[in-house]
Amino acid sequence: MDHLSVEYFGKCIHDIVSISDAILDGWVMKIKDDSENGKYIVKKQTTLLKAPEDASEVPVTFEYHVAYNISYGVPVLCFNIWQPDGSLLTLEGYWKSNTAFGDSNMYETLTQMDHPVLCKHFLSLHPCKTQEILQTFLATSKNPVISWLTVVGPFVSLNLLEEYVKHC
Q1: Which of 20, 102, 118, 151 has the fewest C-beta atoms lying within 10 Å of its C-beta?
Q2: Could you list the residue ranges that cross the membrane (predicted)?
């Protein structure tokens, strides 16, 4: 297999939701019927994030979406981050508070783009390198979406539990 089709992506995210349901991890399937790539999964999670203005940590709520981007032919990890006051954290604010990216170029790594199904602005890991990462898993992984998420998720505070990795 040389790429991840939208159909295979749908099977992979269905498996993620099945695992999540068994371990009560919070992933939910969403379907937009009038869209070729209308299946995506969503998870909300609260975590501590370094405050951009100082060294303290504040609780923030991430809402992760894993959807299929038809233009790139790959899954995308879209997310929004709500601060304690209910406002959204900006791209620049998140970049300042996230040390996982090191010396990376912000705009080559993280971007704000339209969600491929909802057509609303979300933060996202840039999809241009996703095919390269996926390629290493397509021939060997039983679920290349899980394998890909285990690589890219930690950069945005999304760490999959071991139960998911067992299904790769």
Answers
A1: 102
A2: none
Question: Stretch 105-111: mean pLDDT, rounded?
Answer: 68
The amino acid present at 139, given as its one-letter code, is A
Q: Residue 106 pLDDT more than 80?
A: no
Note the pLDDT of residue 142. Answer: 94
Contacts by residues 63-66 (CB-CB < 8 Å, ≥ 24 positions apart): 64/156, 64/158, 65/40, 65/41, 65/115, 65/118, 65/122, 66/13, 66/16, 66/40, 66/41, 66/145, 66/149
| Eight-class DSSP state of 113 | E
Predicted TM-score (pTM) of the model is 0.91
- Give the 3-state secondary structure of 24-88: CCCCEEEECCCCCCCEEEEEEEEEEEECCCCCCEEEEEEEEEEEEECCCCEEEEEEEEECCCCCE
Residue 69: is its pLDDT beyond 80?
Answer: yes
Q: Which residues, 6+ apart, have CB-to-CB distance to 115 below 8 Å?
A: 65, 67, 78, 121, 122
Question: CA–CA separation, 159 vs 154, rounded Å?
Answer: 5
Element of type H or E holding 123: strand 121-125
**Stretch 135-143: mean pLDDT:** 89
Read off the pLDDT band of 17 (50, 70, 90): very high
